[in-house]
Design goal:
Layout: E1 4-5, E2 11-12, H1 22-38, H2 41-53, H3 60-75, H4 82-86, H5 98-107, H6 109-121, H7 126-136, H8 138-141, H9 146-157, H10 173-181, H11 185-191
């Protein structure tokens, strides 16, 4: 097994992603890709809390993202500067705060992840996939039109995703059935009208 080296030179064994459920694995994978594309530390914080809540050690990319900010903080331990040192502050007045640029994505992350999985695993039209996730995530998406959900998915969420990797290659039929059965009954009926890819 190949070792990875963190920002302080420490050596880590790679995380065993097989300990995660299929859905959690894909969520962590997507957060990693988004972090590497945007360098938005909120993806690392989200992955950290998800991994620790699952009783697992966070991957090296998460530790590195946080380590760099903590090293800055240790050299200048002013509590008022911690957010900026971690990279979660917009800095000067009028500058974009990384939290604000990610807020819609974070609120809708699980819904968009599920839409991504539906489209990758099931031969379902985008509008029908949007309808299924809207039924599952009533609180987050209830007020949004299907057209808006599809546009948000295509224009805001999908550009951050890996272009060449499909989760279909790594997920068996039993896992797909489990994923589909996790939807509410009305969404499940809709999804089951379409074949698995």
């Amino acid at each position: 097994m190949m070792q990875e080296v963190g920002c302080a030179g420490e050596v880590y064994q790679p995380i065993n992603y097989l300990e995660l459920s299929d859905e959690s694995f894909i969520q962590i994978y997507v957060k990693a890709k988004n972090y590497h594309k945007t360098k938005n530390v909120y993806y690392a914080i989200s992955a950290y809390t998800q991994m620790v809540s699952s009783g697992l050690s966070p991957p090296v990319w998460v530790l590195d993202a946080l380590c760099a900010g903590f090293k800055k903080h240790l050299s200048d331990p002013d509590p008022k500067k911690l957010a900026k040192q971690l990279g979660v502050s917009g800095g000067a007045s009028g500058a974009t705060n990384p939290f604000n640029e990610m807020i819609n994505l974070s609120e809708r992350f699980n819904a968009m992840s599920d839409m991504y999985l539906l489209l990758a695993l099931i031969d379902i039209p985008k509008r029908k996939a949007a309808d299924a996730v809207k039924k599952r995530y009533k609180d987050e998406l209830g007020q949004l039109s299907l057209k808006y959900i599809v546009e948000f998915f295509e224009e805001k969420w999908l550009p951050l995703q890996p272009e060449t990797t499909s989760p279909r290659d790594a997920v068996d039929l039993a896992a797909i059935a489990k994923f589909v059965n996790s939807f509410p009954v009305n969404a499940r009926r809709l999804i089951k009208k379409y074949p698995v890819r």
